[in-house]
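Loading example: each entry is read as three labelled lines plus one structure line.
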Amino acid sequence: MRWVPRTLCAIVTCLATLQAISVSAQQTQNSAVHLFPKQSVAVLSVSEPSALIETILEHPIRQSVEDIEDVKKAMKSTQFRQLNVARRVLEYQLEMKWNEAVGQLTHHGLYAAFDPSSNGFAVIAHAKNKSTLNSLVEKLVELMNDSKKMGIDAKIKKSNYRGLTTYEVQNAAIALLGDKLLIASNKKIGKDIADRFLDKTKDSIAHQSHFKASQKLLRGKSAARLFVDLKLLKSNKQLAKAINNKTENIAVELLAGGILSNIQKADYAVSNLYVDKDKLRISAATPHNAKWVSKPREFYFGPKGQGVAPNLLLPSKQMFSITSYRDIAGLWLAKEDLFEEKHIAELAQADSQFSTLFSGLDFGEEILGALKPGVQIIGSLQDFSKLKTPKPDIKLPAFAAVFQLKDPKKIQQRFKVGFQSVIGFTNIALSQQGQPQLDMETEKSKDAKIVTTTYMSDDASDKGLINYNFSPSVAFVGDYFIISSTDQLARELVQIARKGGTKTAKNTNSAINIDGKALNKILADNRDSLVAQQMLEEGLDEKTAAKRIDVFLKLLKHAKNASLDLQNHSDRLELNLELNLGDAK
Amino acid sequence: MKMDDPKSAWKQADVKNWTKRHVAHLYRRAGFAATPDELKSGQKLGLEKCVDRLFNVETTKFDSMMKKMGATLLAARETRSLSAWWLYRMRFTPDQLLEKMTLFWHGHFATSAAKVNSADAMLDQNRILRNNALGKFEKMVSAIARDPAMLIYLDSQENRKTRPNENFARELMELFCLESGNYTETDIKQMARCFTGWEIRRKKFRFNPYQHDNGVKKFLSQSGNFGGEDAIKIVLAQAAAPRFIAKKLYRFFIADEPTPSPEMLEPLAQEIRKSNFDMGKTVRKILLSNIFYSKQSIGKKLRSPVEFAVGLKRALGASVNLNELANRLEQLGQLPFYPPNVAGWEGGRKWINSSTLLGRANLVGDLVRNNNTKWADSNLAVWLRKQNAARPEQAVDSLLELLVAVPIPGAAKSKLVRLAEKRGVKSHDAVADLIHAISLLPEFQLS
Amino acid sequence: MTTRRQFLSTAAGSTALVGLAAGVPDYLLAACHQTIAEKTDRILVVIQLSGGNDGINTVIPYADPEYYKNRFTLAVGKNAVQKIDDHCGFHPSMSGFAKLLEENRIAVINGVGYPNPNRSHFDSMDLWHTAHRRNVQTPTGWLGRFFDQQKTKARDLPGVHLGREDQPLALAGEKVHVPTMQSLDDFRLRLGNRRQLKKLMEDNVKVKRDKNNELLTFVQANTVSAIQTSSRVEEILGKYKTKAQYPQTGLGRKLATVAQLIGSNLKTNVYYVTLDGFDTHANQAQAHAGLLTELSDAVKTFMDDLKDQGNDKRTLAFVFSEFGRRVRENASHGTDHGAAAPAFMISGSIQSGTHGKYPSLTDLLEDDLKHNVDYRSLYATILEKWFKTKSKPILGKQYKTMKLFS
């Protein structure tokens, strides 16, 4: 058995030589968290580890994951095989499947904490009861004794601390605390917890007010829960600097500016994980106060933090949609406060170029300023059967951005003319490259004005050009201003806009949604291209390349839907990521 | 055996001891490289059969796969992916000689995608080059003279009666068929008139009779109402034509330097003339000749970047990311489909300078150590074992035979053996280091 | 740790070469020496400003009332200008250039252009790159022709283009190939920690070989020089830590790499870098100021670094743009394509100050500044007075040279 990794043997041996000590008839009511150090910066609670493991192992997605080439390779590696052997030895000794063993050992949960003051990491497994824990331990003692006979000595020192039998392996310490098993990364944190157990002191992290408050932030079932003390984290200078620094670029600011402001002031954060065979959800929350958002970042949540994402215009073949409350004009005007010199200079250059397009209107104040806060970006599958131009060989989705105008009548013409200029420049560039040009048409229907462009295509050699995925258009209806990559999508959005769109849930600041089926269709449509690229990237022959691509496509079929939303409540910020999974159909 | 006598230089070689090194040399020049298996089987076949098996190789399945891949890549109209596509072809084709000749013709009829800017047109031209690579040269010239990519590259999309395109005529004679000094400016002016009416419209060739000059043209001692096809025939009938092609083939197959004397080239030129410019027959003659296996040829060429990279991969059975390889080859000075100018790649000593040598050394190092490189056998150690080269000295011998064109000095070899003895040759890393060390020898750059 | 001076003083028998020299055959050593720069070898660093730099707001004619009349919102106040002489001064962002002037290391050449100005970016840039010789089958650049004209045997790269953009036509020659690099990594031999391999390589290249194979000798000589180059670059990267704090801008980083290459004594004569973004048709003020800051700060740091190395007298930086911009500001607070503009030459050996008359803001050609200096004169001056080589074969004609170097 020499090939069994030493550390695993060490831990096994530890557990094995543990002897039951002071059998306490009373089960302690306190959870493991009530034993963790006061200054724990992070606490992880997994309520039913074995159920969680089971869900993951039984998940329909498992087979598809195992088909992946890299995963296959890893599973053939020596380390993985050694792990497997060790597992089987253990199962034989324990006379039960490893997951069952884990289940008994962590029947009431598995908990972990990190404490910077002792620089220590502690894990507590809360077993079903003391006798179960003891019997498990006994069997492992046997195993260790057997292996010692064969010459494997894990160098564990048996010791004693205040009456508790402890075991030390290098720096780590292990102790049996009633029905709980403690594994501590160093003696300091080990002692802290053992003391608290023996003296029953009420000064653990669970007793702290900020921890108690954090547990109220997120409701709902969870398989695992994480608590992080942000205040303590921020005492680390480097981290604090990173958070407080100006963001490097405008995209980051748009995505996370408000969140950064919140993290600067929030004292703690919690996160929940929920998994079942259909769904995976991760939620995170921090306490929030509208006053915490700095003035330059007001563009993010709105004045007094009351901004709500605009109603979604959902096309029938939606692939993804993003809706978000953002006052882009506000961001632009506050750029001096938000960005470094260098980036401001870059933005100034962009400003200069955009202004040219809009005949000298000030980009920040007059162009961006004409938009109401709130933006939507939508991706949708295209119906290529309805194309007036030839079909492209590579099929791309259609994209659109939707804004609302503060004063439509005033600014509509400017935008329309700006669009004309862009198309004009584009046509010249296209003709220089020998590509077809765009022909512009304006349609007026009832209350809407739609300006569409289509590629001219009389040249046989232009068949299948990727350009035919695009027919850039803009549309105005009501106070909506729609920029779309295809006329089809523009028209569809106009119709939806007339009806008002899908109302976003209260308190939603931003929401992203991805439709798995649509995503799959796009990739499946372009499978040949993916295979060719794979052949070039990896130097494979067609069959092997195709097999790999198909494995990847199958894996993706499990994803039915993904969504991410940021909620802005009066007392908290909540970020929810949800992934809906299913069978690969 | 010094090749002073032109007649005997081109006679079929009678190599008494046909070794693996001969096979390696043949494959290095006629293709990109031989694998250990090809060395073994080639040695057993002997000279003539070994050369024979380079011709008429079955490639239908491979061709259709490449065609499909090409079409898919082109959907994005990316000219850069063409280079990766062709590198893939060079690496995996069963017909190395055909592919090598296509590369030769690409340098001869140089056209760059940077100017032509149409992946379709470049691919079409590539097809023309491949279809005619070992066929009749006249057919090749005819096809190229009408090829949209070529005409766009030469700014010769138009050729009007009132303004005959002299540029096209000049390049036809100077670069493609005769070499300068074998015609006069008047010849150019007159010959240009033969091609009037040859146009490219919307990336397609067409003959415009209204623009064609129907008068009598006088050039190269011929006179008559010649059209383009006639002009090509006349040009190829010149004595200089076969000599020019012979000279280019000599440089490509025999040696970079010194330039062969006209007497030395004469038998080859005569073969070209006799076979009516049949390139297949001519190349066969070269590959069977005495001079090809003589000291005048072995190790007397410098590997071009493409030969260097593709050759190494073929020999070792490695597959890499071809897009990345294309970028590296560009830095080394030879990106397929992007010759620097209308004269193609000068080659020879021009391939070598500090920067390219470092680039080549790094290319080998990255190839053998990159986790993403795929090997035909699971790793280099297994691959080496299959060659019965289990002991360090055997391993070094085996690798040198496979990869290096000339014997290396004893002192250098013993250092390599010592390295192999110290590290062993049982792990992939150890063999990788050994191969890298070999690639750092100056001899490694020789073809 | 060797100081810069110590390291450089052993350049001729550089530490790298000394290590290698033991046992290197004579004929190879001779070839090697040709690849190390002599103290007299001169270097040209071309800094191309792409887009058409607004010369009038770079070298500002603050004393001319026409300036203020034409640049309604873009004019820089008299007091903000960093004065060069009674007539003109640098834009306030260019403190770097102003300091170089105090140190007598910068020449401002006013009114550079050419007859029949072309206002297309591509065409005008092509003219600057080819020195007006672009209507040939394979256009070559003026520097490419310069390289072709040099006759040296075993040499390092004659020129290096540093950057991600396509290689400028100026460097294209018929025979010589100039590499495009993104960083010094391109010059390093990646052997990892395999010292064994490195030693093996160095030992093996020294072994005597059959002199009859000339190609092999050629490769051997180049291998030696490649190893040297790589070692020098490693040494530079490892030991040579410049005190100079280069601005973390695109141009700053490129010039930092150029300084490292110059410091490693490559026998490279020409380095080429570009700075893009000067096409300011609208809202020019802030964008242009940012670019001028980037330019002048990077160049000043670069020249200071070279001075520390002891190389600033033999290095010449040449800054140009494909054309200037119009006198009159347009309606978008920007300027449109123009013609003549100033060029700059910076060196420890330059005749500092202004050269050439500042073009008149009123005597215009099609509303643009008339040029007083043909840019090909600048090329001729660089070729003849700096590189000491004939300019006529390269430029096609004999152009008048200027007195720019001491």
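Residues 1-7, 12-29 of chain A have pLDDT under 50 and may be disordered.
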